[in-house]
Amino acid sequence: MFASFMINTWAVATIVAPVAGVVGFFVVLRGSAFPAHAIPKGAFAGAAGAALLGISTLLGLAVFSLLGALGIGFLGRRARQDVATALALVMMLALGAAFLSRTTEYEPEIYSLLFGEVLGVSTTQLLPVAALGAACIAAIIVLYRPLSLSSAVPEIAEARGVSGRRIEICFLIVVALATAMTVPVVGALLIFSLMIGPPAAARSLTSRPVLAMLLSVVIALVTVWVAIAASYEVNWPVGFFVGTLSALSYAAGRGWAAWQRSHATAAAAVVPHAVARSA
Question: Contact, 22 vs 140, CB < 8 A?
């Protein structure tokens, strides 16, 4: 699994996981799981269109991810965000169906974009993925304070002059960029699992934002590395293992949080009893 032909996969996975962990933290914090689920599905239409035209699928992913994010953001101004997200998803899926109906020459690539593929990462994708990853991290750094404030206490953010709609559109664009860089590794159908499972598990372990983001990155890295190794060994889609491990990490995080709560409750019940006995 560490042969020369696997170097690209390990390199891209090591770039993708931290970005998914950081962006996913705010996806979970803002309750934006549906857009994080919808944008990759719609972006797949861009990959199908790029395959039909014979151009880079990464370019198609990026363009349709941005279009989907902007569509959700602007439609959400006049309608509920879940409705706007569903409408944007339906429109892009319709385009994807049309593109796929016009070609039968790219089945292996389309399969890898849907489900992820250990050997599906080419050398030409390394630099674009690294550039998109750097752009995502830079955007999160710039947006960190207003994004955190509008995510945790939107009313106070509005009172301080932070536009919730503007921040929402900016954040959706970041999600779109993260989608474009992550799809070739994880696959469009299960990409949101990497942006939801590790961050949700991290939030179950701690309420401190910076520590939660660091834990999210660590869990995402371990998830992707183990998924790639397992996929290489058994020849199953890497997306399957990413989804399964993400769900297990979240279940473990919730279990730990429940144990901590029960332990704290038991300790709180013991203290008054001990005080009463000493009195």
Answer: yes
Rounded Cα gap, residues 15 and 42, in angstroms: 23
Domain boundaries, given as residue ranges, for the chain: 4-196
Of 204, 164, 206, nearest to 32 by C-alpha is 164
- Contact (Cβ atoms closer than 8 angstroms) between residue 191 and residue 175: no
Write out pLDDT tens, residues 41-78: 777 788 778 877 877 777 888 888 888 888 888 776 66
Q: Which of 177, 168, 209 has its CA nearest to residue 30? A: 168
Contact in structure between 108 and 146 (CB atoms under 8 Å): no
Burial of 59 (0-12, 13-18, 19+ CB in 10 A): middle
189-206 pLDDT tens trace: 667 788 889 999 999 888
Q: Which two tokens stand for residue 215?
A: 């834990």
Q: How many CB atoms lie within 10 A of CB 2?
A: 8
Q: What is the pTM of this model?
A: 0.81
Query: Closest Cα to residue 197, out of 174, 215, 184?
Result: 215
Please determine, looking at this structure, whether the domain spanning 4-196 carries the CATH number 1.10.3470.10: yes
